[in-house]
From TrEMBL:
Domain of life: Bacteria
Keyword Magnesium: no
Full protein name: Protein kinase domain-containing protein
SUPFAM superfamilies: Protein kinase-like (PK-like)
PANTHER family the record matches: MITOGEN-ACTIVATED PROTEIN KINASE KINASE KINASE 20-RELATED (PTHR43289), SERINE_THREONINE-PROTEIN KINASE NEKL-3 (PTHR43289:SF6)
Organism of this sequence: Stigmatella aurantiaca
Region called Disordered, residue ranges: 229-258, 381-410
Record field: compositional bias (Basic and acidic residues): 381-395
């Protein structure tokens, strides 16, 4: 007897090759993050290649904001936006963006593989500063400058500043609720952390990132680019952060870690990483670009020695911020099914059960019972923008729609089609635990550790998550607090 198998509707996280999204046909897969998946596509009847970033959440407003910012920017070092649209699905409408296809490798990888010199580093950094100049002149800020969001082409080093998913511009709607905006902790400026220290209890205080923040992040990027290591963390709670205190000395010169760094490059990296925001070229990316280019021209023969950078092991304080947003697959194996995500040990776990004991009835029972008790305790979280990283991507980041995944050379294989869909658009779990939230070990029945805090999974909750629950990889969670804690509505 013939049996008719049900036809599974494509999942935005794992479209089969040949799928049409508007006039675009999927010809390859690049990577997946928590808010979007990037595909290589072609327009029907044309031969050109483009990068299509498809939302994983119905009606994700961040795509419109990213498109609005990209339309304002004119730079040879920023991918061109070619279009945007809405993909109709039975679960709702998913926005997408279509951008210039960029073949390149992340900045840190390029520096090591091409044996880049100080002069080459100066020129690449000057071009990234030009990309920031165009962004700032358009009234925007990138807010997640880092090595994995800079793709470099060729031995001469033509960089592209990628992933504007965490970007902002004047007049844009506010989409987040934490004190600090989206970004990567390892690259945040000292003044951003100081603001949070002062206003973390304030219900409406929001730090407004400025060009000085972008330049500082470029400085941290440059530091790691030429030394293979991060400078001390800027987050006040971390060991070594005292160098970033007001009137602090700042980090040691890059040349102390890598003697091959030329004096010109050494001085400019330190200026970009200055403790005082005004010392970072007074927030002028144009001045920074000019200084970097002029240094490349006047530097002596020593600037042509290879930097011989060897990327050091990522420190523990940075690891928790790394590897979160984008899964960028460069090897030949097929990408994992959409319903699976890497677990903390590197094994593949079902997304809804990451860190949980699969099949535990107590997870469901206690998670659901905890909902009414915890309602209103958690503060509204900020969009996590890009979770991504690991020292390369890997640098952390919040922008949950990184384009770095849309540019790294990979072997193209067809993703596996699955029936699972992540249709919701809820508040993402914040980068750090709420004030008073339980920290590991998360040993209560049903608890799971996420980003340094303990959470309960609401496995039967409908998407999008309700206001008192938070989204993590397509599932809803509630924060776990000590039993004796009094309810509070304070923001983290």
């Amino acid at each position: 007897m013939n049996t008719t198998l049900p036809v599974l509707e494509p999942d935005p996280a794992s479209l089969p090759l040949g799928t049409k999204v508007g006039p675009w046909r999927v010809t390859g897969w690049r990577g997946r993050g928590t808010s979007g998946t990037v595909y290589r596509v072609q327009r029907e009847g044309e031969a050109g290649l483009y990068a299509l970033k498809l939302a994983l959440h119905v009606g994700d407003e961040r795509f419109e904001r990213e498109a609005s910012l990209l339309r304002r920017i004119r730079s040879a070092y920023v991918p061109v936006l070619h279009g945007q649209g809405l993909w109709q699905h039975r679960r709702g409408v998913f926005p997408y963006l279509v951008m210039q296809w960029v073949e390149g490798v992340p900045l840190y990888e390029w520096t090591a593989s091409h044996q880049a010199s100080s002069r080459q580093a100066l020129r690449v950094l000057a071009r990234v500063a030009q990309a920031l100049e165009a962004t700032h002149e358009a009234g925007g800020v990138h807010r997640d400058v880092k090595g994995d969001n800079i793709l470099v082409q060729g031995p001469d080093g033509h960089p592209y500043l990628m992933d504007f998913g965490a970007g902002d511009f004047r007049g844009a709607a506010t989409l987040t609720w934490q004190v600090l905006p989206p970004g990567t902790s390892a690259y945040r400026s000292p003044e951003a952390w100081a603001f949070q220290e002062l206003f973390w209890r304030h219900p409406t205080a929001r730090y407004a990132a400025s060009p000085c923040d972008d330049l500082f992040a470029l400085g941290i990027t440059a530091y790691r680019m030429v030394t293979g290591e991060y400078p001390p963390p800027t987050e006040p709670e971390e060991a070594g952060a005292e160098v970033w205190a007001q009137e602090g000395p700042g980090p040691q010169p890059p040349s102390a870690l890598n003697p091959r760094v030329s004096p010109e490059l050494d001085a400019l990296v330190l200026q970009l990483c200055a403790v005082s925001a005004l010392e970072r070229f007074k927030g002028s990316a144009r001045q920074a670009a000019q200084a970097l280019e002029e240094a490349a021209q006047r530097a002596g023969p020593g600037a042509d020695r290879a930097l011989e950078v060897r990327v050091a092991e990522v420190p523990g304080w940075a690891k928790r911020e790394e590897g979160r947003t984008w899964e960028v697959h460069r090897a030949s194996p097929a990408p994992p099914p959409a319903e699976s995500v890497p677990g903390p040990s590197g094994r593949m776990w079902p997304a809804v059960l990451e860190g949980l004991w699969a099949g535990s009835v107590l997870v469901v029972v206690l998670g659901l019972l905890a909902g009414p008790l915890l309602r209103g305790w958690g503060a509204r979280a900020e969009e996590d923008a890009r979770e991504g990283r690991d020292g390369d991507s890997r640098d952390g980041g919040v922008t949950a729609m990184g384009d770095s995944a849309a540019t790294s050379p990979v072997a193209f294989t067809a993703p596996m089609e699955t029936p699972r869909l992540s249709p919701g658009f809820g508040l993402p779990i914040p980068e750090r635990p709420f004030v008073g939230q339980r920290r590991p070990p998360c040993n209560r029945n049903g608890e799971v550790e996420i980003r340094g805090g303990c959470w309960y999974a609401l496995r039967d909750a409908n998407q999008p998550c309700k206001e008192d629950a938070y989204d993590w990889k397509g599932a809803c969670y509630l924060p776990s607090f000590p039993a004796q804690r009094s309810p509070t509505s304070e923001h983290p």
